[in-house]
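worker-03 picked up job from queue 'complexes'. Input manifest follows; two sequence lines, order preserved.
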Amino acid sequence: KAGVTQTPRYLIKTRGQQVTLSCSPISGHRSVSWYQQTPGQGLQFLFEYFSETQRNKGNFPGRFSGRQFSNSRSEMNVSTLELGDSALYLCASSLDPGPNEQFFGPGTRLTVL
Amino acid sequence: AQSVTQLDSQVPVFEEAPVELRCNYSSSVSVYLFWYVQYPNQGLQLLLKYLSGSTLVKGINGFEAEFNKSQTSFHLRKPSVHISDTAEYFCAASLQGGSEKLVFGKGTKLTVNP
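worker-03 finished. Artifact:
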């Protein structure tokens, strides 16, 4: 069974631009979560989606948004990029909401210049 | 709100030595607890989890952890480490009956030296 895939793996953008990151969960998994990883702040929760609905959102500004499609694939968008948005963005999927194991993808490394 | 504290940012050990990576959590309600490992340029992989029941949890790659409710700790242990265990280890918690979002500690970089 294929793991969680994230595209693109690496991305370079300039301040003020916007970016869209994509995540394909493991087949059959319906819950998708997004995390931001930076050296200073560590791993921080962004959003959680299940059945195309956002169930929970972390403490990030409105420039960060996401969505989930009917096939459980998810995208996150960051508008008006800032230098501080440079990070590794990790997507995780699980079968359903609950204390299930979350399977993480390799991440998208975003660099904002 | 819950929080997770990993007391050591870096732990160097020699190969075949035992290791303990410390984790404490703070929460006003019961939590589920997890340990994840991250190898360079990769995502996170689950080592083990505590949901309920036995307080000693065994995971993959010979790791185990013990849940201690009175000390609000969930320390990770391995009796004999290998060079290949060099990685960053994250302790995480999620609320029982609540959101599935994981709250992570800052991570502990384990370096196994020959």
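worker-03 released lock.
The two ends of chain A are 37 Å apart (CA to CA).
Chain A has a mean pLDDT of 93.
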